[in-house]
Design goal:
This is Thioredoxin domain-containing protein. InterPro entries: Thioredoxin-like_fold (IPR012336), Thioredoxin-like_sf (IPR036249), Thioredoxin_domain (IPR013766). It holds the Pfam family Thioredoxin_4. Belongs to the thioredoxin family. DsbA subfamily. It comes from Candidatus Falkowbacteria bacterium RIFOXYA2_FULL_47_19. The chain has two domains: 55 residues; 163 residues, Glutaredoxin (3-Layer(aba) Sandwich). A five-stranded mixed beta sheet has the order 1-3-2-4-5. α3 packs antiparallel against α4 and α3 crosses α6. β2, α2 and β3 form a beta-alpha-beta unit. It has eight helices and five strands. The protein is of the alpha+beta class.
Length: 222
């Protein structure tokens, strides 16, 4: 009787140990899944934050191209930056070449000198009258201007109403939007201008046109 009892006692302990280990492994897998899900959620939240920083507020920035794009290009640029001056014809050409597939957003990152913010303000004040891209191009083509009167003259050449433009410029109507672009650029740790994001992928400097075309074609086909 004693042997029988000890035999079944041992079997019972073995069963309990097996159940315990099964519960432990189940708990470990459960915790592992929770950790993985948490990491995934954190990664997605970080990516969403980065995407918001890249694109900014939709109504605050000027864009051209497709309203339903396969590829979105966001440029952080400075009208007084010589590399941006060399780069802007490439972006304009891409805008024309891929107008059905690509959306191009321009954001201000005026860091090269003290008057860069005034140039950005001039472009936005012209934009208030529907002349942003024309003024954008004129500022790059006439790089070197610094004063209000010179900026005003370009705006008038672009077709802006002088009184409306001066009112906007003197009141720094869009300074907050420019500062927000600058803040987002700093949060993204932008190394300089031009810096572009192609569907979130960063490229800095005067990127060769042919290389950009390869990148865009690849993104379109994905």
């Amino acid at each position: 009787m004693d042997r029988w009892y000890k035999k079944w006692q041992g079997i019972g302990l073995l069963i309990l140990a097996t159940i315990f280990l099964a519960l432990v492994f189940t708990a470990l897998f459960y915790v592992s899944d929770i950790v993985k899900a948490s990491l995934k959620n954190n990664h997605q939240e970080n990516q969403n934050k980065i995407n918001r920083l890249i694109s900014g507020e939709e109504d605050a920035n000027y864009w051209m191209g497709s309203a339903d794009p396969k590829v979105t290009i966001v440029e952080f640029g400075d009208y007084s930056c010589p590399y941006c001056q060399d780069f802007f014809p490439k972006i304009r050409e891409i805008g024309l070449k891929y107008k059905k597939d690509v959306k191009i957003i321009f954001r201000d990152y005026p860091v090269v000198n003290d008057y860069a913010a005034n140039l950005a303000l001039g472009a936005r004040c012209a934009g208030e009258q529907g002349l942003f891209w024309l003024m954008h191009d004129k500022l790059f083509l006439n790089q070197g201007i610094t004063g209000k009167e010179e900026i005003l003259e370009l705006a008038k050449q672009a077709g802006a109403n002088e009184d409306k433009f001066v009112h906007c410029f003197d009141n720094k109507t869009y300074l907050r939007e420019i500062e927000r672009d600058l803040s987002d650029g700093n949060a993204l740790d932008i190394p300089g201008t031009p810096t572009i994001f192609v569907n979130g992928e960063r490229f800095s400097g005067n990127v060769p046109y042919d290389y950009l075309i390869q990148v865009i074609n690849q993104k379109i086909s994905e």
